[in-house]
Structures are given as structure tokens and as C-alpha cells.
Protein 1
Amino acid sequence: MRIGSFAWPLVMGLLSAFLLGPLVLVAVFSFSSNALISFPMGELTLKWYRDLLANADFHAALTNSLAIALPVALISTVTGTLAAYAFAEWRTRLGLPLLALLGLPVLLPPLVIAISLVVLYVRWLGLPLGRPAVIGGHVLVTQPLVAAVIASRMASFDFTVLEAARDLGASRWQTFWKVTLPQMRAAIVGAALIAFALSLDEFIIAVFTIGGGNTISTFVWGKIKTTLDPSINAIATILLLMTIGLTLIALRLTRYRG
Amino acid sequence: MNIDVPAGGEAAKPPLLRVSGVTKRYGAAVALHPIDLEVRQGSFTAILGPSGCGKSTLLRLIAGFAEPSTGKVEIGGRDVTRLGPENRPTNMVFQGYGLFPHMSVAENVGFGLSIARRPRPEIDQRVAEALRLVRLEDFASRRISALSGGQQQRVALARALIMRPLILLLDEPLAALDLKLRQAMQTELRRIHRETGGTFIFVTHDQSEAFSLADNLIVMNEGRIEQAGVPQDVYMRPNTLFVSQFVGDTNILPGIRRGDHVELALGARFSSPGRQGQTTFVLRPEALRLDAATPAGSAPEGTALRCTVEEMLLLGGEARVTLSIGNGETLVARLSDPRDGEAFRPGMTVTVRWADKALSEVGVAA
């Protein structure tokens, strides 16, 4: 009993250290003057962040990433929300299986999706690779998550309010804008942020379908293959902060119960 | 003043609501057989029936949430059959209230007027009026989630009444409230009906609720109207066995009519012309009088039978006595004063009597 009560925190501590250690190291060494991750740490410096800001390739990759993540967030939020809403409003027994079918891409290995997408784009549709190709691929995996978030909010949605609104003279459109959307807003914004964060650091689909050019994640991969440039640590730290920040906001919002 | 319209005036004025030949089927399932129904201006009508009898479907057809498969719905002389709920002069208090959780009480109540683009000062004034009517003046800026069930019910009422509907529809309005609150809300509903002078139609499965609120009762079963009329008439003179049993306790008395007389299976014979052969009468337990002393014998205005007390139950404000007639038939009598019941012990021989006009014929029981 005594040993047990000490052993568990110890195991949990080690596990956490193993999982989070690399992240902490990366973040810490993004501020170190050492060229390699090695102790002693050397001086504190913002040199790697300055290098990044001056790097035209990084700018291009960041621009690509944002130009992909923004439309992905928008598109998947609209389609995912509509899908979840439709399934909920129909209240058919098919709703749940259909939603699960829509979620299939999340369960498939990303590599399979990436290869299938390239085959689809190039062989079948004759479309060029590039930003739109990546956007399509990302929507495929973010939309199910949006739909899942919205569907879980829908589960506690009181559909009587829709009838009440119409009874009081509101058209379907007015009902949607004044009654449905305000109650769903938090969940929708949260879902959009999650989609944005997912797209921002997605790698496999991006590397297969971007063609020429880079997103942030393929840019880092390219750098890591050739050099061990510490500015990678800086990129990783930036990405980490953005993802954690967005996810925290999203979590706060989606847990909201009107 | 809304309660009793003289018969002449009633005939001269067309009914506010007329439902004619309305049916509703979902695929092969029939929810409503042809329904004909009239409700006059100012009435407080209850649609009473067991769950699944089609009463909610009928209410939704009047509100415009469903379209009838055949037939016509007219309100104030206008055919509204094909109009949606947003275009009908009706408003509804929903069973789960359907309040907007992201709005304050005042915003909920003012929703319909703001959709209708009424000027702000008018909305504010009418919201204040509506909240005063339901006695929620001090709750205007509260959130819905901060209200109790009874208060939410009042908000739903105010939100519907502010639209000044020709007909206010209420779907099981008190079902979600506990007993004390339900009784208080019944009083409130009666007061609001009186003060607004409006026409209310509500759906309920609770016969005591229907009797305490309504001046017009419609009893439904299996998609049909079994009986409509003044509640007391429906109670005293049920047309069918179902109505008799649904609106209260009843004694069922099978009998045979021969000539102008009916012989009941329990041994009574009385004068009653009509269709020959098998028939059934019902008799309310409170119509029975018990007497320990007087001997049996047919009184001119009624029937008296010797019987044995089988069981006597004291139920708070009343006593219930089960009587067995010699030939295996039983009767249940209700005594409104439980002290009267204490005189009757199981095994005692007593005389039970009733007036023949208390018997209602419901035809041959199925």
C-alpha cells in the first residue's frame, strides 16, 4: 500500500516527463545560443527567431500554411455544421451511421488518404497539386471533427425552440439566424479553431499534395533532412504555442452550455 | 361574461374555430379519423384523451405545424388549412416551453413583436404588460436558466399572449409541474383567461385538470372524438363506455331491453324505451345512496336493491364501499362524507338506491 502510493505518482511522473520532455527541450533550446541541443545551455538569445523572420522561405511556407488553414477552417466548419445539423433535424435512424461514414477519413491512416488523394487529383481529375489540393485533403479530415463537435452540441439542443420561433412569426431563415445560430455560435467557433489548428500542423497530406513549395510542417521536414538548424526549434515553439492556444480557446468555447 | 353566450347569439355568430372533416395519416397509420369540431369565441376548451389518442396531432393541425391529409381548418371564418404556424392567428405554449435559452425573459417575451418589426417603445410597453399579466414584472432581465419550472411556464404564456392570438393553444401546459404548482397554475390560467377574454384550447391526459379549467370538453380516443360538450354533461351523461371510464370511476351495468323496459343483469327493472336487445348502462359511484334500515322495494323514481357490504375503504375525504348483489354482481358506491362510511362494516346487509335518471346508456359494450 505504502509502496503503491509512491509508485503510481512516480510512474505517472516518468511517463509525463518522457512525453512532454522533448517539447520542453525544444522550447527551451529555441532560446539558447547552442547550435545543437546540448548542455550546458549557453546564453539566452532570440537569434533563431530573428533568423526565421529574415528567411524568405519561411515566409513563403507560413503564407502557404495560413492560406490553407483559413479556407480549411471556413469550409469544414460550414460543411461539418450543415451535416451535423441536417442529421440532427431529420432525426432519422440513418443520422448516426451517416455521420460515422462521414468520419471515416479520421480513422484511415493519413498515408493512405494522402496517396489516394494524389491518385485522385493527378490520375482521375487531372488537377494540379498545390494549395487547393491540400485544402481539399485537409477538409476531408477536419470536417468529421467539426461535425462531431457540432453533433455533440446538437444532442442537448432543444428543437422545440425552432417550432416556438416559427409560431411567433419567424421565417425559417430568421429562426436560423436568431435562434439556432446564437445557441450554436460557441461550438461553431470552437470547431473552426480546432480545424484551423489541425490544418496548420498537418504534415503527411500536405507533403504529398502541395506539389512545389512548402507549408510550415514540410518546411521543417526539409530543414531537418539537411541540417540541424536550431531555428527549427523556434518554428516548433511557435507552432506549439499557436496550437495549444487555439485548442485551449476551442475547448473553453465548446464546453460552453447556453 | 365570456362564459355563457345565450343559445340564440351562439347560433347567429359563426364559431371562431371550425375543423371540418380533418384526417391525418402517416403512411398507413391513421392518426386522426375524420374530425369535426367547433370552438366558439371566449371558450376554454380541453381536448382530453389518453396518450396516442391523436389530441396533440389535432392541436398541431390547428397551430399549423402539420397539414391535414384531408379536410379544412378555419379560424375566424378564414381557411388557414395551408398556412404555416407563422401565418396563423394562433400561438402555442409548448409542452417543454421551448424558451430561447440565449435570451433574457424580456427578450423571449418580445421575440414575436421584434420579428414583426414593431417599434421599440411599443415592444417595451407590451412586454411590460404581458409580464404584469403573468406576474413576472421583476424578472424581465433574468436569464431563462435562472427561472423555476413554474416561472418558465409563465414566460411561455406571456410570450404567446403578447401576440394577441385569436386562439391560444396549450400542449399539456401543466404536465411538467409538481402537484402544488399545478394547482396554483390552474388558478392562474383561469384568471388569465378571464382577464384577457381570449379563446384557449389545451390538450391534456389528466381528467381532473380538464374539469377544473375547461368550460368545453372534447374527449378523444384512438383518433376520434368520442364526445364533446359541457364538462358536467360529459361526466353525468357519457355517450360511450370509454368516456364514462376515462372521465371518472364508473359502474358498468349490462342489461336487456324488452319493450319499454330494461332489465339489468344485477336484478333491477326500470322503464326506458329504445332499441331492443342487449345494452349497457353506466352509473357513477356517487349516484348511489346506502341505507342500513329501509327494506328493498321499487321506489317510483328509482331502484332499491338489497346487497351485502364487501369492503369499505376510507380515502381521506371520501368513503368507497364495494357491494355485492346476490347474483355475483358488484357495485361501487362513493360517499362524499367518510363519517357516513363508518356505519357500514363488511358483511352488513344494506339497501342501495339510485335515481333512474342517473343511469346513462352507452350501447352494447365491446
Protein 2
Amino acid sequence: MTLTPQVPALVVLVPLLAGVVIGLVRHAGLAWLLASLASVTTFALTLALAARVQAEGVVIYAMGGWAAPTGIELRVDALNALVLALVAGMAAVIVPTSRASVAREVPADRHDQFYALVLLCVAGMLGVTATGDAFNLYVLIEISSLTAYALVALGRSRDRRALTASFQYLIMGSIGASFLLVGLGYLFLATGTLNMADMAVRLADLHGSTTVRTGVAFVIVGLSLKMALFPVHQWMADAYTYAPTSVTALMASTATKVGVYITIRFVYTIFGHELSFVIMPTDAFLLAFACLAIVVGSLQAIRQHDVRRLLAYSSVAQIGYLVLGLALGSALGLSGTLVHLLNHALVKGALFLAVGAVVYRQGGATMHELTGIARRMPLTAAAIAVGGLGLIGVPLTGGFVSKWYLVAGALEAGLWPVAVVVLVGSLLAVAYVLRLLQVVYFGEPGTVAPEPAGEAPASFWAPALLLLLGSVALGVSGQLTGGLIAAAAGALAGGAP
Amino acid sequence: MTHVSPELTLVIPLVGAVIIALLGRWPNAREAVTLACAAALLLAVGSLFPAVLEHGARPAWRGPEVLPGLGLVLEVEPLGLIYAGVAALLWLPNSLYSIGYMRGHHETNQTRFFACFALSIASAMGIAFSGNLFTLFVFYEALSLATFPLVTHHGTEKAQRAGRLYVGFLFGTSMVLMLLAIVWTWTLTGTVDFRAGGILGDVSPGLTAVLFGLFMLGSGKAAVMPFHFWLPSAMVAPTPVSALLHAVAVVKAGVFVVLKVSVYVFGVDTVASGVHHEWLLYLAAATILIASIVAMTKDDLKARLAYSTVGQLSYIVLGAALGNSLGVAGGGLHIAMHAFGKITLFFCAGAIYVAAHKTKVSELTGLGRRMPFTMLAFAVGALSIIGLPPLGGAWSKWYLGLATLEAGHAGLLVVLLISSLLNVAYLLPIPLKAFFLSPPAGDGAHGGADEGIHEAPLPCLIALGLTALGSVALFFWPDLLLRLVTEVAPLGS
Amino acid sequence: MSLLATGLFNLLNYWVYVSLMMIGLYAVIAKTNLVKKVIGLSLFQTGIFIFYISMGVVSGATTPITWTDAERLRLGLSRVEVAPERAAAALAAVEEDGLDAARAALGPLAPADAARLDELLARPYTNPLPHVLILTAIVVSVSTMAVALAIVMEIKAAYGTIESDEIVTAELETARAARS
């Protein structure tokens, strides 16, 4: 039997089974090796899947041979093929290179658990992205979330505040997922199906139903919690600050992106344009909070002393951009969201890897520990600099392209104040990025914290620079972004979930 | 006639910056590279002049597309050639001067200084030859980034505050206002290319007026009040940086954007007829007068020169806002004329600082006896800024004056004249007092207080002598510049 | 008044579910004791279980297991008033010719009885899918409790307390000590 038809299932099963196996090996090195192999294999599988979607269109896989709507199906189109490749790709870059960082930040007897949890978390996120079944989505969200809570808590050996951060994350995450569950319940009540494609068809005739509208409201609020959209973002700032750095790098570049993907899926494919934007004021709701997220998140980031917290608040703002684009409800806005999704994943991943290098050398990542590190750690500093510019969205990084689309989308919709908010947000990004760069490049080393002994191992800066190269490629290659835009247009047309 | 491809003008300083950064350990080799690059750039830009003027060529280069139909494009046109010519021509004396100043003053981080300087020049070339608004924006921001380490060169609290103001004003205006205007233009017209006669033909007058305001205020480097505060505070940087800011690249980039956008996005006729542009005229006029008055109150020499620049830049903004060919011509000429005059003044201020450690106007009395050459050059520069023959500044003011009359704003001519008088009042006393008054008495023990002061290092003197001569030469041979501005804005009427 | 009463009574399950959710949410937000927060979360999720279970109910339907026609008819006959010999004839007919024949053999019934019987014969069983779903959700909820309680234990070990205000105070003191 050939494995090719099974690729969609393998994308989820490989990391899932590997996670279970790793949990049993009880050997740090072996756990790392298996986890690396599994994440790289998964990435290869997602690429193969993406190629197949490119060639054949939507790939549908019935789990266990049970056809929908009885069974659960995986349904992969251009949009989620992209997100799958992104999640698996980030895992394939971060997991194999995380060994030195994990050795520094996680107790040695927990390494097998650490890698097991990471792979289960990745499996959950991949499943969420691939599935075509709404309830299955909820269960997989919880798999990735439960493992994420535990991963954040593993930061406790460095700082006990990781525990409270993890607890807060758990409470907020569970409430968010429960809201989603309630919303799905109402939608199921109205449509009698959990298959996303079926649900989309049946919802088209039920626009007047109060039950449906209640369900939509619950789903949107639940997803906002999961995405850490302002004002329910505080858990993310704490979790990113105290989790082990490689966990933060992985989560910052994947977890929130998956949340945004699900929101796109619900708003555009399942609810459809009319239900989301005409009957329900989803756009006004999301736009308002997205704008607040951009401004408040950026302002908070400017005030931070701990660089991880600074980057976390910057993520709050960047999620604002992502949500803003999808709430515009136009091809331009959605293109902006998709480009930003990719770019921000690459840039934030790289920045947290670079910060991990500083933690490795300096034992912490406050402004003190970063003072003047450019002299001894030029490559890490370069990664921070290029990543910072990518956050601002200077021209020739992917951030500029997405910002361009978002501003153009807002202007096209006649919402020039929203366009101004996007631009003011990047101005605030200039403020916090330049403050960081001033410390890194022009600070006097050795004045507030000891000067680093030397450059961090290549396993820190090499992947960071690789990711940034991707961001720059996104910024200069119109072809690359052109492909993304095609995917965006496909999702907007609601052709297929 | 052969000419170089326009992208070479970016490649030369870029490669230069990399080599300079690598040669940090060998200062002599490093400085040699700077000078060689400056010379090479001058030749490269020089070769473009005959091609554009004699043969009407518009050499172009197309870079990667970041979005469908939106990419990096360089295209040489006459207005850009003026700006590029000025920047390339002044890089050489400025490098010479920098070497003398930085060494004479034992500055730290010289490698970073020279590398960032070369990057700034590369950005300036990109701005000058940009073929569309996107390219313009890219290099405009690159220039802000490349000059930021120069402004904060000393790393002191004061320098950092200046840096924050610098970045805040420049990025604030460009990212919020200019970028908004660019994207808006793109959504309205589907293009961001520069075209003779403008691209906003189909856009409603009201929206055109909004875009005009966004573009004009968005070019924060033009330092139109109230967006001028960054410029005086950036004086904390070493003097060669001030020269770069005020003459070679930065503020000229701002007014160049104002001119270029007026001519190639809106079109001269649209500015005059279709846009509510009067407010900009009055804003520019107010900036001219207020800045001149503030300059008179400043005792710090560099601060006085800084406010002088704020006023002079608004001459060019005025020229663009008048909406006729004479105004554009005057503005284009003033880019060059003011550059030569002001760089001479800054070179002199720096030379006085290096040689005599004096920064206050009130301390310069009688200094002409110790530093006659420097003070003579200062007088030449001052006269050019004031706009008196036989110095270059006379031409640009002449055209701007004609333009105000043609536009029917005689009141603005009065503003120009009053401004010239104010210029006389705050600039001329400096060389006069230096030459004709005796130095203040010393404390008795060491004779005169100026005892032991000599002229500045030779590279500095050569540099300021060259630029002063340039100001004179521009008066006698303005033909080249006149022909360039005529290409942009025919003066036939 | 009667409208309110019917609304309350007919939708009792839903009122219960919303009340439980809100009580749980209140505990999560207002209680400082972390274990009480976890209890609140549990209540919150339990409310949702009731919601799912309620939505599967079909009034007057049977349990969702496989019934033969004869079994179904026998259940129906036990709920209506019918003469024993007609019932026996109907049961004989269902063995031979299926439900329709049996219904004919039964002859006319009182209108209320007829309606009840027809409903029972037509709508076979309650929807089991929500129940299955909620089994999964219960598993998820139990896992969440386990992780939450594990974290609370770790917090107790690290801070010596599980009162969130005392934890905040402890952190503030740590920060103050680090500064001085």
C-alpha cells in the first residue's frame, strides 16, 4: 500500500505518535533526536501536501474511511496548506536547534517531557488547521492548548512566575475554548451538522435565526480569547515572558497564527460574507478591538524593560493588524492579513530565537542584559536589528507589503481613520524597536550587566537569520506575495473550506 | 556620449560603506576609500548630465517588484539630477573636511561615522533618481535610518534626546502622512509612477487637496513649521554631520520631495489651479519669517545656522506651492545655491570649533585676525544665503521673486525681501565683528584670550575654500542648472 | 405571566445551563483562591455539558438504540389505551407485514392516543450525537482540571500559598528586594 493518499492524515499523526513515543523514552538526547526527526518529517509532509493542493485543488481525506458527514474529514485547500506548512516549518526550524537553549532553561530530567509536549502541541495545531469538522477542531484546540499550558509552566525552573502565567493562560484559554464550544453547540442546534462545508451550506438558509446569531457571537468571542485579541490579551504577555524561550519562539510564531486562521475560516467560509458582515456586525466589533490592540499593545511595548515582554506586547499589536485585515472583508485586507501572518511568524520567531541567544549567554533578557551586546554578539545583534525592522515594516521586508495592503484595504473601504491607526502603529513600533537597537548597538557594554563572553552558538543565530531571510524574500518578491493573494482570494470567494 | 547606468550611483557608495566598515582597523586606508568613492560617484553622476541634457535620455533601471506593478525603479530626470549633483559634488569636500574634523577632534567610532555617511549618500542617490513614489519612500526612510547613528554619534543623553526627536519627527511625518498619501494615490489611480504633468487627473479636487496636504506635511525633512524642531536639536552631532543634514542630503531630500511630488504627481498646473494650496504658501511664508527672527535670538552659532536653514528651506516649499514654472525653477536652483552657501557656513563653524573651541556668536569678535581665511569664507557663504550678487543665492531668489509676482502674490515678495533683510541682520555681523572689532581683552596673564589660536587643519580649510568658491562660481556659471530646471519647467511664458 | 412560566418551564435546562455557566464564571473572576477558580471553571464547563445534553433531547422519543418494529409497537401499545385483542392482532400483523399493516389492524383510536402512537412510531430515537460529543468534552474538561490542579500544586510549592492576592504581594516584595 502506498502512503501517498494518507499524507493529510500523516501530517497530524506523525507528530502525535512521535509525541507519545518520546514521552516514553526517558532519555534527553534521544528525545531531542526523535523530536527533530519528527518535526522535519512533518514539514516535508506538509510541503508534499501543499504541492498536491497546488496541483489538484482541494484535498479531502476521510478519517478511518468514514465519509462525511458521518465521519470526520480533513479538508486542505490553498489557505490551510499554507498555514500547515508555516506551523510545521517553524517547528522544523525551532525544534532541532533548540537543544542548547532547552538545556539551559529546562531541568535535564524533563527534556523528554518537554519534547513530547512540544510535538503534541504541534500536532494539535496542525490538526486544528487541517480538519474540516467543527467539533474535531475544538478537541484539537484543547490538545494544543493543554500542552501549551504545561510548556509555559516548564519555565518555572528559571522564574516561578511562569507558574502563575501558565495558570492565567489556562483559565483564559479554557474559557475561550468553552465559548467556542457553546457557539458550536448553537450552530449544531440550528444546522444539525458539524462538518464545516455542510454547515456553511445550511447556514446560508438560516440567516434570520436567533440561534445562529447567538452561535456566531459565541464563536467570535471565543476565538478572540484564543487569539489574544485586545482586551483579552494579558495572558499572552505573561506566558511569552516566562515560558522557556524556545517555547515562546514556537508559540509566538504559530499559536496565534492558527487562531487567526480559524477566525478566517469561520468568518469567511463557514459563516460567509453576508452572515459575518451584513447580518452580524463582526467587522465593526473586530475592527474596533483590532485598532485598540494596535495602539495599546504598541504603547505597552514601549514601556517594557524585559525584552521578551516587549516582544509579547508587540505581538498583541501585530495580532491587531492580522484581525484588522480580515475584518475589512475585502481582498486587499485579507491579502494583508495573509502576508502579515507569514511575515510576523518569521520575524517574531527569529526575534525570540535571538533573545534566546541572549538568555543563553547572559542569563536574562532585560534591557540591562542586552546593553552593548553588538560588540561581542554581532550576529545575534544583527538578527535583532533586522527582525526589529521587519516588525516596523520598513520597505523591503514582508511587513511593509502587508502594511501596504492593510492601508490600501482601509482606504478602499473608506475607513481612513483605520489607515491612520495602522500607520501610527508602525510609528509606535519604531519607538520600541529603536529603543531596543539603541541599547543593543550603542549601549556601553559592561556598565549595567557583564559583557557577554562571546557569540552564542550557531544553533541560535543561524535559524534566526534563516527566518529573517524568508521575511526579506517576502518583502522583495512580488511573485511570492502574488501566490498568497491568490489563496486569499480563494478563501474570500468561499469556494471550499 | 556614454553614461553610467543609474543604479551604479547607488552601488558605489553602498560598496564603499561595506569596505569602510571592513577597514575599520586601518584609518588611512578607510579614509582613502571614502575619498575614492566620492570621486567615483562624482564621475558617475557627472556622466549623466550630458546624456540627460544633450540627448534627452532618461536612463532607467527596474528592480524587483514587491507587489504586482509596484517595484523599485530608478529613472534619471533633470530635477533629480540637480539634487544628485549637489550631493555628489559636496560629498568630496565634506569627506575631506570630516577627515580633518574627526581626527582633529579625536572623535570615537569613526568607522561607524564614515560607513553611515556613505550609506546616507547612497540613500540620497536613491531619492534623487527614484522613478516612483514607492522607491522614493524606500530611500527616504533609508536616509532617516542611516543618519540616525550619525545624529546620536556622541551617545550622550543630549544626543539621544536629539535622536529621539529626529526619528520621531521624520518617521512620524513620513510613515503616517506620506505613506498614507502614497497608498491613497495608489488606490485612487492604480499607479505610483512619476509622470510629467501629474498622475492625479481623475481624482476629485477635494481629495487632491487632501493628498497635497499629506504629501507636503509628510515630507518632514523639509522642516516646515511646526515640523522643524528636530533640525535645531540635531545640532548636537559633529559638524560634518550638520553639513550632511543641512546641505548635502537630508533637508534637501525633504524639499526635493516637495518639488518632485508637486511637479510629477500633481503637476504644476494642478497645483496652481486645482488644489487649495494657499495655506501652504502662508505656512511657508510664516516659517521663513519666524525662523529668521528666532535665528537672530540664538547666540549659539550652529543653532543660528540651523534656524537659518529652516527659513531657507521654506523658500523652496514656497516655490513648489506657487504653482508656476518660475517657482519650480527658483526652488530647484535654491536646492543647489543654499547647499553651497550653508555647507560653507557649517564648515566654518566647525573649523572655529576645532581650532578655537568656540561655539557662541558672541565669542567670535575679533577672531578674523586669527582665522582670516575661515572668516572670509564665512562672509562668502553668508552673502550667498542672503542672496546678494556675485553669489549663487542671488539667482534663486531672483526667480522666486519673479514667481511670486507671476502668481499674483505680491505680498509674498515682500516676505522674501524682509527675510533677506533679516538674513543680513543675523549673518553679516558675525564676519564683520570678527574682522573689524578687536578681540576681548584676556585675563592679563596670557595676553589676548585668542592667543595661540591658528587656522583649522588643512583638510578643513581646503574643503571650506572649495565650497566658498563653488558659491561664487554658481553665480557666474548658472547655465547648467538653469538648463536643467528649464527641462522640468519650461520658462517660456 | 403564563408566557413567562412556560418559557421558564419549557426551557428549564437552558436556564440551568446559563445559570451554572455564570456562577462558574463569577467564581473564576471573583475568587482569589486558585482552587476555587478551578472549581468555577469546572462549573462553567459542566453548564455547557448540560446544554449539549439538552439539545439532543427529542420529546417523546426513545433511547437511541436499535429497535425492531415489533419492539417499537409493543412500547407504543403500552402507552395507549387499546383493547387487548386488537393489540394482539396488531402484534401479529407487524410480524407478517410491518408497521403499516399493524397500524391498520389496530383500527381507530381516541385522537390523543392516535397522535401519541403515531409520533412514537414515526420518530424513532433521541439524537445521540451531542451525547457522544459531550463525552469527548468531558474528557477534555477532566484533563484541563488535572493540568490546572497540577499547576496549583506547583504554585503552592513555589509560593507557599494559593491565594492570588498573596502571590501578587510576594512578587512585589521580590521585586522590591531585587531593586534595593
